[in-house]
Amino acid sequence: MENILEKANYCLGCKVKPCSNKGCPLNNNIPEFIKLVKEEKYKEAYKVLSETTVLQGICGRICPHMKQCQGSCVRGIKGEPVSIGKLEAYTYDMAIKDGYTLYDCYKDEINENKINNDKKVAIVGGGPAGLTCAAFLAKKGIKVTIYEKHNYLGGLLVHGIPEFRLPKEIVKNTVKMILDLGVEVKYNVQLGKDINIEELKSNYDAVFLSFGSNICSKMGVEGEELKGVYGGNELLEYNMHPDYEGKIATVIGGGNVAMDCARTIKRLGAKEVKVIYRRSKEEMPAEIKEIEDAKKEGIEFLYQNNIVKILGNDKVEKLELIKTDLIQKEGETRKVPVNIEGSNYIIEADYVVMALGSRPEEFVKDLKLDLNKWSGILVDENYQTSDEKVFAGGDISGAKSTVAWAARTGREAASKIAEYLINN
Question: Using an 8 Å Cβ cutoff, are 82 and 34 in contact?
Fold first, then answer.
């Protein structure tokens, strides 16, 4: 308790609020909720957070805080930033402990908005964007049904982030609080297979697509078809790991998916795990803490290295790498890696895991919606697709790939959907 109050009292309560206005994708009122933590008013602090987010216990644990809220903290200019993530997670934990829920925060608005109960919205995908959209629509008194292809809700919160980073009990409790707002769920229903977009449009007043973009991108190098080459996203989602015992695994990529894959594989018994990244450590998109934790667990990092070829007969045996220079090009925010001719070398490997970003599933092309240049669903400033009745958010609409950014699209889309329903 003393430690939490010490962390809270370290906050200056800035009136400008750069942590909220610049750092937090959800624009949580950080100084205000921390002020209430200082006063040990945890229910009130939780209620302040609930004005902008329904994922307090999750974002408090897994957001890249140093690249978001804490990275914008005034305290961090000359010293350590305020521990915003830990304070947010603690506030959620205290709310759970005291039996205080989202419904307690929203019940007045839900009762006031019962006039909207004749409106129905279908949400396809129960990840961060879909869950957030569902909660904020329910808060507005709108009937919501989530269609989920798995037999659980949470999406990457369950299958994409390992237990050691995000306990599944936290996700389970968060989901329960959202469903307790009156949200209905239909599990094991996949769009394009068990139900189509036209059926949803005919049965609901609006549709929100938030099923993510979880097919792993490939490098296009020779040997990607060999046995032992996996996509990081699919590996985590379906938990179909091979036997790593005594083997050498290489993970290609520099984001949090790469870190989660590497740390999971190491814990599953791999003799060696190497992370190969074509840029420098400073340019890795992964959270600094995740990189440092991976190093502590014995994972080796090969920076400024690029894969040229995956070698083997039937299965992976070796990798051919080439070193890279980094060059700043006009119009590029990050330095561009350029292969250094003649620097090729070979390393041993039993498994290769591609964690290079993701792309949408093929069925998206059959939805008859305009697509963006990444083959995701094109949306306007209202999160509306080329079909006015269909909205989209999260990864599938090209949102930045963090939980908080996905949740923001869900919240903002809920507001735009409500406006659309009022006018139609």
Answer: yes
SS (H, E, C) 286-308: CCHHHHHHHHHCCCEEEECEEEE
Tell me if 141 sits within 8 A of 115, measured CB to CB: yes
Could you count the other beta carbons within 10 Å of the beta carbon of residue 398?
18
The strand pairing partners of 347, in sequence order, are: 319
Q: Could you tell me the pLDDT band of residue 236, with boundaries at 50, 70 and 90?
A: confident
Q: In the chain, pLDDT over 70 holds for what percent of residues? A: 99
What's the CA gap between 44 and 139, in Å, rounded? 18
The set of residues, in sequence order, having a beta carbon less than 8 Å from that of 264 and lying 6+ positions away, is 162, 236, 241
Instruction: Give 169: exposed, middle or buried? Use CB within 10 Å, 0-12, 13-18, 19+.
Output: exposed
Residue with tokens 């993701």: 358
Q: Which residues of 143-163 are buried (b: 16+ CB within 10 A; e: fewer)?
A: bbbbbbbbebbbbbbbbbbee
Mean pLDDT of 233-238: 87
- In terms of Cβ atoms closer than 10 Å to its own Cβ (0-12, 13-18, 19+), residue 75 is middle
Tell me, what amino acid is at 275?
V
What are the structural domains of the chain? Answer: 2-97 (1.10.1060.10), 106-213+360-423 (3.50.50.60), 216-357 (3.50.50.60)
- Work out the burial of residue 82: count CB atoms within 10 Å of its CB; fewer than 13 is exposed, 13-18 middle, 19 or more buried: buried
Q: What is d(CA 82, CA 71) in angstroms, rounded to the nearest whole number?
A: 10
Task: For residue range 304-332, list pLDDT tens digits in order.
Answer: 999 999 999 999 999 999 999 999 888 88
What is the Cα–Cα distance from 293 to 278, expressed in whole angstroms? 20
pLDDT tens digits, one per residue of 365-377? 889 999 988 889 9
DSSP assignment, residue 141? T
pLDDT value of residue 116: 66
Percent helix, strand, coil in the chain, to 5, is 40, 20, 40
Our measurement of the distance from residue 21's CA atom to the centroid of its chain's CA atoms, rounded to an integer in Å, reads 20
